[in-house]
Amino acid sequence: MSASSEASRAVSVEVVAVRDVSGVDDGRGRGTVHPVATGEVKRLYGAPSHRGHGIARRLMDETEQCSRSLGFRTLVLETGTMQPEAMALYPALGYEPIEATAADPALPRQIVRYLGEKR
Questions:
Q1: Could you tell me if 102 and 94 are in contact, meaning their C-beta atoms sit under 8 angstroms apart?
Q2: Which has the closest alpha carbon to 27: 38, 43, 16?
Q3: More confident residue, 103 or 48
Q4: How many angstroms separate the CA atoms of 118 and 116, rounded?
Q5: Burial of 101 by CB count in 10 Å (0-12 exposed, 13-18 middle, 19+ buried)?
Q6: I need a surface site. Which of 3, 71, 85, 107 has the fewest CB within 10 A?
Q7: Distance in angstroms between the alpha carbons of the first and the last residue of the chain
Q8: DSSP secondary structure string, 36-91?
Q9: 46 near 55, Cβ under 8 Å?
């Protein structure tokens, strides 16, 4: 296969990571912590040319399944108004806003999904 045909077949790599934040400060400025069995979703990214094809939705579905198998009962993540695609995606997946953490509406907001619960 030639280099040009390989380049035309290149696809974006979608990335997601989950870390255990059980007992870690929840960042809301009240000295409260995340409950036991809470994971934080970090670094979900898809190249702009690959957005709108359901890839992030499938990736989050798989992330939730893996998180459940690892014992997480809750997932949290941050997104903000500067990421309109994410602001639309997560509520569609069942994530709910948590109380705002800052006065500036452009700053990241935490949202949460309770795994295993239909909302």
A1: no
A2: 38
A3: 48
A4: 7
A5: middle
A6: 3
A7: 49
A8: TTEEEEEEEE--GGGTTSSHHHHHHHHHHHHHHHTT--EEEEEE-TT-HHHHHHHH
A9: yes
The helix (run of H) or strand (run of E) holding residue 16 is strand 15-20
Q: pLDDT at residue 37 above 70?
A: yes
Full-model pTM: 0.73
Average pLDDT, the chain: 77
Question: Rounded to 5 degrees, what angle do the CA atoms 28, 97, 32 make?
Answer: 25
pLDDT digits 0-9 by tens, 1-13: 444 444 444 555 5
Q: What's CA 1's distance to the chain center, in Å?
A: 37
Query: Model confidence over 63-108: pLDDT tens digits?
Result: 999 999 999 999 988 887 788 888 888 889 988 887 655 555 555 6
